[in-house]
């Protein structure tokens, strides 16, 4: 784990980002508060077809007209 002050981080930003990308924990402190530098995981660019199978349900009367609108449907 690397812990650096904000002033140090300004001078070593490229190195700290590379360390975080490679999996190392990087903590930056400012006035006693700490933040952690972590990489954002990339999501798959390709959809996973069928991944919601069995999780979606649609009622049999889904496309029936609503009773409140019967007079407008005549």
Description:
This protein is 22% helix and 19% strand. It is an alpha+beta fold. The chain has a domain at 1-39: YefM-like domain (YefM-like fold, 3-Layer(aba) Sandwich), CATH 3.40.1620.10. Strands 1-2-3 form a 3-stranded mixed β-sheet, covered by helices on one side. Strand 2 and strand 3 form a beta hairpin. The longest helix is centred in the N-terminal third of the chain and has 16 residues, at 6-21. The termini are far apart. The mean pLDDT is 88.
- The first-to-last residue Cα distance is 72 Å
Label the overall shape: elongated
Average predicted confidence as pLDDT:
88
What is the spatial order of strands in the main beta sheet?
Answer: 1-2-3
Give the SSE string. EHEE
Described by strand count, sense and barrel closure, the largest sheet is:
3 strands, mixed
Radius of gyration from CA coordinates: 27 Å
Derived from helix and strand composition plus strand pairing, the structural class reads alpha+beta
Q: What's the β-strand tally? A: 3
In CATH, the architecture of the domain at 1-39 is 3-Layer(aba) Sandwich
Write a brief caption for the model.
The chain is an alpha+beta fold. Helices cover 22% and strands 19% of the residues.
SSE topology:
Blueprint: E1 2-5, H1 6-21, E2 26-30, E3 33-37
Parallel strand pairs: 1-2
Antiparallel strand pairs: 2-3
Keywords:
74 residues; alpha+beta; YefM-like fold; three-stranded mixed beta sheet; 1 helix; 22% helix; 19% strand
């Amino acid at each position: 784990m690397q812990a650096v002050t904000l002033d140090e981080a300004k001078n070593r930003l490229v190195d700290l980002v590379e360390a975080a990308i490679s999996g190392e924990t990087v903590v930056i402190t400012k006035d006693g508060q700490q933040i952690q530098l972590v990489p954002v995981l990339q999501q798959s660019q390709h959809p996973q077809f069928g991944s919601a199978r069995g999780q979606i349900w649609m009622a049999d009367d889904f496309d029936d007209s609503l009773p409140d609108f019967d007079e407008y449907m005549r």
